[in-house]
Amino acid sequence: MASSETHHILDLPEFDGAPRLLIVVAPYYKDIADNLVAGARATAEKAGAYVDLIEVPGALEIPTAIAMAARMADYDGFVALGCVIRGETTHYDTVCNDSSRGLTLLGLEGICVGNGILTVENYDQAAVRADPEDQNKGGGAAAAALHLISLSRKWARRTKGIGFKPAESFRIAGKPDGSNQA
């Protein structure tokens, strides 16, 4: 049963230039995934973001796909979407823990990721959470990615007067031109 608590939701950030989002979805439970994507797309559209979508086989592949895209493509942020429903084995725990851990590690590397991988006990819980007209967890994941992009852009524009600044040129060995001749 879903809680009747109310939660504070931040207003969407505003952007000078439209952010580029990649939604990475595992459509194992297709109708749940479609609702998550619909919510994420609607939220991204409200913020003026460009959105691309790719599908991967399962929740464990989502962090890997995001890591690859972060290295090889031009996106400002990522939205991870999928659904893991508890079954009869411990595989549920592995998928939940490892997909979440993978996304957290990406975030700690500075990659802007919104986590919308549902981890639920049953299908009904997933349906409520995925529904754009109910809990809209897909929209929430997109909003999280957009907020992180906004922070990233804010801090990228700042110049700090303290900290490490690399020298214009440096010598590893030999003369500054790289030769080893004295």
UniProtKB/TrEMBL annotation:
Q: Which CDD domains match?
A: Lumazine_synthase-I (cd09209)
Organism of derivation:
Thioclava indica
The entry marks the following residues as binding (2S)-2-hydroxy-3-oxobutyl phosphate, namely E88, T89, R129
Please report which protein family the annotation says this sequence is part of: Belongs to the DMRL synthase family.
**Tree of life domain:** Bacteria
- Say what the protein does: Catalyzes the formation of 6,7-dimethyl-8-ribityllumazine by condensation of 5-amino-6-(D-ribitylamino)uracil with 3,4-dihydroxy-2-butanone 4-phosphate. This is the penultimate step in the biosynthesis of riboflavin.
One GO MF term attached to the UniProt entry: 6,7-dimethyl-8-ribityllumazine synthase activity
Q: Transmembrane ranges?
A: none
Q: Which UniProt keywords apply?
A: Riboflavin biosynthesis, Transferase
Q: Do you know which Pfam families this protein is assigned to?
A: DMRL_synthase
SUPFAM superfamilies from the entry? Lumazine synthase
Any idea which positions bind 5-amino-6-(D-ribitylamino)uracil?
Y28, A59, L60, E61, C83, V84, I85, N115
Q: What is this protein called?
A: 6,7-dimethyl-8-ribityllumazine synthase
- Spell out the GO cellular component terms annotated for this protein, sorted alphabetically and separated by semicolons: cytosol; riboflavin synthase complex
Q: Look up the record and give one Gene Ontology term from the biological process aspect.
A: riboflavin biosynthetic process
